[in-house]
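Final report, closing paragraph on structural work. Over the funding period we assembled a curated collection of sequence-structure pairs, and we close with a single example.
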Amino acid sequence: ICSGLAFYFSQVIALPALAISIIMMIARIWDAINDPIMGTFVDKTRSKWGKCRPYLMFMPVIIMVGTMLCFANGIYSEIDNTPLENGLIIAWAGISYIMWGMMYTAGDIPIWGIASRMTADEKKRANLLSLARMVAGIGGALGFVLVPIAQALAPMLNVGTTAKNLQMAFIIVAIVLTIVGTIMFQFASLAKERVEGLDELTGEKRGIIDNFKIMWQIGRAH
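Its predicted structure, as stored:
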């Protein structure tokens, strides 16, 4: 979705390059902060479904809605836009994209963590992670076909200007691909958590600061 949105922001709704750069920079910085925070939430989750499954059950639909909202914007380059309207278009692009990143993180961290809770067998865990990477690759490919399919669909539409037709084509294709991706993502919630984590066995509790320290140590090691 990231590559499709980058194209959508720059070539379809024509956001200024500086605005896109700032949005992407803020999103990357926030990701670095948000990831350990979300990891802590997963660590502390206690439910009848387990630690990871609740997120895999409910986040796919939330991510789907968040993805669609990223495309629900105006066109910056329209002549009759006021400065306020253009400012709101940029603001919504930034807010929706950063919120989408947070939603995706809330689903992504549990999906990579659930393998360790499905089985204690290292070989089986490795196989599960390989399968997850393969499916993630298929899902990622959906993002790359967004642009050519939308470009092919745009001339068939008649909702306004060329820019409006292209925007509507992107919205239609994004909705279809997002629904397909959501269905694929939802299958992950069928996994069963059978293995207790180290924190549950030892009683060790890690907080957000502890997770930041671990990330810092990993960063220094690399």
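Residues 122-153 form the longest helix (32 residues). The mean pLDDT is 85. We thank the funder for supporting this effort.
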